[in-house]
Each structure stands twice: as C-alpha cells, then as structure tokens.
Fold:
Amino acid sequence: MTGPALLGQKSFHRLVFITRDDLLAARWWHEGMQGAITVSPNRRTALKYLVGLGGIVGAGLVLRAGCNALSDPGVNMDALELQYKEGWSVGAPGQALTIPDLSPTDSEGNSNWSTGLNLLGQDLSPSDPALAPFNVRTLFDVLNNPRGAGLGPLLRPMHSLAMDVGNHAAQALAALFSDDADRKGTALILDMPGPLSVAAAAGVAKVFAPVFLFDNWPHPLGVVPSHQTLAASIYHRPDFVAASTHRAAAAPPAFVLDNQRLSPYRDESDRFDNRYLARLPGTDKL
Structure:
C-alpha cells in the first residue's frame, strides 16, 4: 500500500485479502512443510550451507524456509498495476537504487554486460516447454517494458562473497544428482534472499532447470529490494545461458524464489509496497 506522503494527493487502499489456495500455494506445500526431512548424510552436508544462507526446499528434499511467508493474507495486490500505469519509480522519480557489492563485469568477466539487457527475461526462461507455464518473468521483463524506462542505466552487476558461497554449495548439491534415477521425481525450491537464490540457481543450472518466480517490479522506496535480485541476475546471466546448452532437455525444475517477497511492512507512508505472493504449481501439474 502506498501512502499520500509518497504520491502527493493520491491515496491507495487495500483492495483484497487473499486466502485462495491457488495464490497462497497448493496445500501440498503447507502440509509438506510439516513433514519429517529424510536426506542422505552426503546430501545433508551439501544442503547445510544453503540452509545457513536462508533456505532450500525440494519435493523429497523439504526444508522449512519461508513457510509462514506464503500464508500472510495482508498483501497489496495493486502496486504492480500502478507501476504498469505510471512507471516503475512512480512517486519517487530520480531517487537512487542501493546495490551493494557492485561488480564492473559479469560472471564471465565481460564488461559489456549491458548489451541486450532487455533480453534478460528471455535468456533466463526455461527452454523446456513443459516448464514455461510456471515461469514468472515479471521482474526481468521490466527491462523490456516502456514503463521501465530509466531503470537499466541505474543497474550494475552484483557479486558478493555470500553469493559465491551459495553458488559453490549449490554446485555440490547438483553433483549429487548426476544420475537420472536421483533426478527423477525431484524438484528444488530455492528460497533465500533474491541475490542468493539467483546465485544458487546458477550453481544447479547444469542439472536443474531454473524456473524464476519473481513477480514484482523494483521501486526506489520498495519494501522488497528487487533491484538487487536484478543486479545479481545480470551478473550470473552468462552462467544461465551456458547451462541451458549443457543440461538435459527434460531437466527437473529448480523453482527460484525471493524470501524477502513478504518483508515486514506496516503502511509506512514513505515506503512502496511491492511485496507479492509466490505461485507454485500443484501436485497435478508437477
């Protein structure tokens, strides 16, 4: 919800309270969070680094990160519509974006990382048609939307030590699924702060097909720092592109979420509520 102090005379009010399962997540998600976790010792060793960073969840590899965030009913559903109508930085034009751990190059050392930035959503989409319906590229497509004008020049690649740790741990995890039998019937859910989830997704991308679920736009005063997730995605873009040519055509999915999607917010007039709900497929779709 955005307040009058942020947008002059305009006042926005909550329109809906969401309780539907298809928006909150399928019931299997909530029920699965309560079940016991059974993983092999080797797999547990690879997982614990990612757990320390914020969480990784799998169908058959279930951890509890982010469970409560999927059931919060107090989520604003019209902020994105407002940005679609009036621009990504509505109410705060010209304000800077804070991106820590800036890098002059992407993961391959390229300094021309801004070339074709409008194609980021296309480059990071799953190549498997079976996974395409579940991919939510809202965040990436801001760079290919007229209402996202002015955002691109404010972005830079983001690369941190924590991202490296998450990436390397994810590579170790992916190595444990080198056998077809191990991969069959498995899906990963990476649910950490956006930049860490992106780095982990890049780490498993040669084995698991990343399916991104970033369903908002950044804003200079946004509750969710989605611009940092964009910056991390720009850094790892070459890794995702290269991995798509390496992995099997029908690779299992790794659903990639930002666990800051429902960060605490209490209708502050100087904040923009760009929070959103995760949309995961039900068991019938899986």
Q: What stands out?
A: The CA atoms of residues 218 and 226 lie 5 Å apart.
